[in-house]
Design goal:
The chain is of the alpha+beta class. It has two helices and four strands; from the N terminus they run E-E-E-E-H-H.
């Protein structure tokens, strides 16, 4: 669970992308987890200009970072707590 269990950290776990959303066995699902994002069977770019399907929290985190960046661009003065609250309150529970 480290470093996700540290205070002040936005921790990201992986979810599936099909309904009903599930937390895969490889992902943390602890109560202190901040957000879940698609991280199971994600098609993404790989070295050499190709694409591959992979799974992991390392694939879920870029989804959160991208959404975070879009929100900060739209509201540059928003605090981290406000951005996290926006992401937490608008996604699929």
């Amino acid at each position: 669970p480290s470093p996700a269990c540290l205070s002040g950290v936005v921790s990201v776990g992986a979810s599936t992308t099909t309904v009903p959303l599930q937390v895969p066995d490889f992902s943390n699902d602890a109560p202190f987890l901040s957000l879940l994002a698609p991280g199971a069977y994600v098609r993404s770019a790989t070295p050499g200009g190709t694409y591959d399907v992979n799974s992991g929290t390392s694939l879920a985190t870029p989804h959160v970072v991208g959404a975070w960046a879009v929100l900060k661009q739209a509201a540059p003065t928003a605090t981290s707590a406000q951005v996290l609250a926006a992401l937490s309150s608008t996604g699929t529970p």
